[in-house]
Design goal:
Elements lengths: L3 E5 L4 H12 L3 E6 L7 H11 L5 E5 L5 H11 L3 E4 L8 H4 L1 H21 L4 E7 L23 H20 L3 E6 L2 E2 L8 H10 L4 E3 L10 E2 L2 E2 H14 L6 E6 L5 E2 H16 L7 E3 L15 H7 L7 H15 L4
Parallel strand pairs: 1-2, 1-4, 2-3, 4-5, 5-6, 6-11, 7-10, 8-13
Antiparallel strand pairs: 9-12
Helix pairs in contact: 1-2, 1-8, 3-5, 5-6, 9-11
């Protein structure tokens, strides 16, 4: 029998792929999203159009900062599980537009917790972020590391979500699991992410800006994680974590960090294959941006122990999927 599952932020990048996988497995997916214009809404509409082809998909436009709308949705749909992926994303945007992070990431998350308390579900799984590790120097990042020094408001809201979830698990016996995602990429992704914007700028005839001071010897590096691996981890966590574990935080990352310049050269190579001609980005090097962190590197030992899964999609394979999709979607030959 299919389970009744709420996916918040369902028109978003990870939300779309999570809902798609659940629908293919025969579950009933109840999706909500406020469809904000942080990036091109047409891309969100495209994702919804693809999901609407499934008869077991139900969508309603809801802003999670509006508690009564959320309460009504929970009450009407008798939900069993909640996969909470709705949030205002972006580290740099949180510096210039902090209000939306408070509304979505704090008030919105509080409303989700209250909804799960008022209308109990079997498991609340929610997206945290590798950004909570801030400028930690010890690598790889482990769930037991101190995360008391966020360097962006976005990171602070995600750490706050983990604390709020802990409190609700303790006080109201709500089973919660927070997943710290590490730089998720793939087709139908977010245009504000570096890999997407680099390709946009290439076809617009513009230079890409690289915020590493041109320091190749001590280059920034990231634990890039392909979206299919994220979805597999999310679903395994949602349905398999022992009911005796009421509160948990887990990393989901590739456990294989890549230097930024290596990432860029791989993206150039994949795009070259997609369009059949050599691609070389025009590059401008600038200082690291306020709020950015120099490195991310996930320890996945706990993840492997609990759900017997570790993300392992090679960067070149994942980026090739992205560039092939990009050229097809935007009709580039």
């Amino acid at each position: 029998m299919g389970k009744r599952i709420l996916v918040t932020g369902v028109a978003g990048f990870i939300g779309y792929f999570t809902a798609k996988k659940l629908l293919e497995e025969g579950h009933f997916v109840f999706g909500i999203d406020n469809l904000n214009d942080y990036y091109d809404v047409k891309l969100k509409d495209t994702r919804l159009e693809l999901l609407n082809k499934y008869k077991n998909f139900y969508f309603e436009k809801i802003d999670i900062s509006k508690k009564e709308r959320l309460y009504n949705f929970f009450e009407q749909n008798k939900l069993e599980y909640v996969i909470h992926l709705a949030a205002q994303a972006g580290v740099r945007y949180s510096i210039t537009n902090p209000d939306v992070y408070i509304d979505s990431n704090l008030i919105g998350f509080f409303n989700i917790l209250e909804s799960c308390r008022k209308f109990p579900v079997k498991h609340l799984v929610y997206a945290s972020s590798s950004s909570v590790y801030g400028a930690n120097n010890k690598v790889p990042f482990e769930e037991s590391d101190r995360v008391d020094s966020p360097v962006s408001l976005y990171a602070a809201t995600k750490k706050s979500n983990e604390l709020m979830a802990h409190t609700y698990s303790h006080l109201f016996n709500i089973k919660t699991t927070g997943l710290r995602f590490f730089t998720v990429y793939g087709p139908l992704g977010r245009p504000d992410m570096a890999y997407f914007s680099f390709v946009d700028k290439y076809f617009a005839g513009e230079s890409i800006k690289i915020f590493n001071n041109g320091d190749f010897a001590n280059d920034m590096y990231r634990d890039f994680t392909y979206v299919d691996d994220i979805v597999e981890g999310v679903l395994r966590v949602t349905f398999t974590i022992d009911d005796n574990i009421k509160y948990k935080i887990l990393n989901i990352g590739n456990n294989n960090p890549v230097k930024l310049m290596t990432f860029i050269s791989t993206l150039e190579k994949c795009l070259s294959k997609s369009i059949g001609r050599e691609v070389v980005f025009n590059k401008e090097f600038e200082p690291i941006k306020m709020g950015d962190v120099w490195k991310t590197y996930a320890s996945t030992r706990e993840l492997e122990t609990i759900i017997e899964f570790k993300p392992d999609t090679p960067l070149e394979k994942g980026l090739q999927e992205f560039t092939d999709w990009y050229c097809s979607y935007y009709k580039i030959k």
